[in-house]
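Here is one chain, start to finish.
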Amino acid sequence: MAPPSGLPLLRGGMSDRQAADAELLATMTATAVEAGRVVFGIYRGEFDVALKTDDSPVTIADHAAEAVILKRLRAVAPGVPIIAEEECAAGRIPSIGTEFFLVDPLDGTKEFVHRRGEFTVNIALIRAGVPQLGVVYAPASASLFIGDVSARRAFRADQRPGDAFSAPSQPIAVRAVPTEGLTVVCSRSHSNPQTEAYLRGYPIAKRVSVGSSLKFCLLAAAQADLYPRLGATMEWDTAAGHAVLTAAGGEVWAPGGVPLRYGKAGFRNDCFVACGTLVPRPLAAAPGAAGA
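Its structure:
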């Protein structure tokens, strides 16, 4: 798949690696939009809901979107392993090296099932444990977020699922800490007492509950300041949003005040805290609360 001609691939002054990443990111973006169209088409109709072995919901949309993404990524980067949620659920987990994709074809399946619209398609490229490229597409809200960490460039675009693919048009960056207090984003489906305990002492002006990786994107787009997640997630839940946030100038911290890394055993995250320019209180240890 050739990258869409409208994407702002700024080749002047780029290294070969940066130019290759820009090409790959363009294809990842087009792929996320294509998968988002599939998801949204199913969302507008009737669908059955099944439960996986961990009791999390899964629908035909998860599988259909993942099939689109796997086909496109394998064509453009045949030597790069793909860790995808439904493939892993089926026991098809490739060995990884220093570079691999993390794919969540439908992040926020609970929001999808309950018709709340806060679901996304997530595609990320990991290199040496660090998210380098990321795309988050929310078809129900026509919101497309793109991040290139090495180039320090992040964008947001309005992309309706029925429209022809359009280029990202608005650069985004994290904001300075507001003097009037923080806007905190929290999980709609996985709030817990540990989160409330962590937030005590912060000057909070507003709280926003939202599903899926859109929480990272609100930070990246200067609409929020802090996102604590004191519960377990999977790496494919967070990697794409993490890349967008980092490209926009933000950070994601694991317990002990170290950066959140990828390629861990079981591809599982414990707790983390994401932020814009705010320097957050470090997490001392993962509380062990589960959730996805």
